[in-house]
Design brief:
Elements: H1 2-9, E1 13-15, H2 26-53, H3 60-89, E2 93-95, H4 96-129, H5 134-137, H6 140-158, H7 160-166, H8 183-187, H9 195-228, H10 233-241, H11 244-266, H12 272-297, H13 299-309
Antiparallel strand pairs: 1-2
Helix pairs in contact: 2-3, 2-12, 2-13, 3-4, 3-12, 4-6, 4-7, 4-9, 4-11, 11-12, 12-13
Transmembrane segments: 25-50, 62-84, 104-122, 143-165, 199-223, 244-267, 273-293
Domain G-protein coupled receptors family 1 profile: 43-294
Subcellular location: Cell membrane; Membrane
Length: 310
């Protein structure tokens, strides 16, 4: 009887849709997705390899950059097991528990990226405000502890999510709106009160994205104040130039999140494909653009790429 109830209230599988109404074009849609995955994995893997091979880059800034690249690889690899089989092979079914696991990893890596960007803003502040104490203030053990704190915070915040979803009876449908599993999408299928899920989800978003973005803004206010205290105009320009890559990475991450939030709040009448496209931008664009941004704007990374492929 217990197994019968479990089967009735929790489907054995979820049905992924990708782009509703465009199923006949999925073979063509697979091409840009394959290119996105290839470019993201190649770009972030190259950053990691360059920093590992060149001991001159064993500095705090590049260690934090490696954390960002590792996290971006995690984002790409967490969506890949369902996205490519769906578009390339037409495999739409994903097991219930596998969907919960994918949901956990996708949201965890997203929250970790926010924490890493906050740590990188602190790194830039120390480098500009206390350049002579930079290496002694951000030692390798201290950087490792910061990275561990980011991982523990994100996983601890996300740990209840699978259990909050698993307690819900899923009886309306088993069809998800995307090519991967997300918490809001799975909650939508529940035929029970989801207040706890909504409240806790809002709390987690506020504690992560909200606080992290506020502290990033505070860091840059302090950075700007420190830069204005530099007497030399050329030194001020050089100090600000070291922040350009990080500012671009922050905008690349937070602008799609804000756009998705605004769309969910005010774009109820927008076509479903618009919501799907914005969710894809939020997940796929930062891992693609971050290595490009740092390769273009960071001279040492650019030189490392030339040495590696030249």
């Amino acid at each position: 009887m217990a197994e019968a109830n479990l089967t009735r209230f929790q489907p054995a599988t979820f049905h992924l849709t990708g782009f509703p109404g465009l199923e006949h074009l999925h073979a063509w849609i697979a091409v840009p997705f394959c290119a996105l995955y290839f470019a993201s994995i190649l770009g972030n893997g190259t950053i990691l390899l360059i920093v590992r091979r060149d001991r001159r880059l064993h500095e705090p800034m590049y260690f934090f950059l490696c954390m960002l690249s590792l996290n971006d690889l995690g984002v790409s690899l967490s969506t890949l097991p369902t996205v490519l089989p769906l578009f390339c092979l037409g495999l739409r079914e994903v097991a219930f528990d596998a969907c919960l696991a994918q949901m956990f990893f996708i949201h965890s890596f997203s929250f970790m990226e926010s924490g890493i960007l906050l740590a990188m803003s602190f790194d830039r502040f120390v480098a500009i405000r206390h350049p002579l104490r930079y290496s002694s203030a951000l030692t390798s053990p201290r950087i490792a502890r910061i990275g561990l704190a980011v991982v523990l915070k994100s996983t601890a915040m996300l740990f209840p999510f699978p259990f909050l979803v698993k307690r819900l009876p899923i009886c309306r449908s088993n069809v998800l709106s995307h090519a991967y599993c997300l918490h809001p999408d799975m909650m939508r299928l529940a035929c029970a009160d989801i207040t706890v899920n909504n409240v806790y989800g809002f709390f987690v978003v506020l504690v992560t994205y909200g606080l992290d973005s506020a502290f990033i803004l505070l860091s840059y206010a302090m950075i700007l104040r420190a830069v204005l205290n530099i007497a030399s105009r050329e030194q001020r320009r050089k100090a600000l130039n070291t922040c350009v890559s990080h500012i671009c990475a922050v905008l690349t991450f937070y602008v799609p999140i804000i756009a998705v939030s605004v769309l969910h709040r005010f774009g109820k009448g927008a076509p479903p494909v618009v919501h799907i496209m914005m969710s894809n931008v939020y997940l796929f664009v930062p891992p693609l653009l971050n290595p490009i941004i740092y390769s273009v704007k960071t001279k040492e990374i650019r030189k490392g790429i030339v040495r590696m492929f030249g």
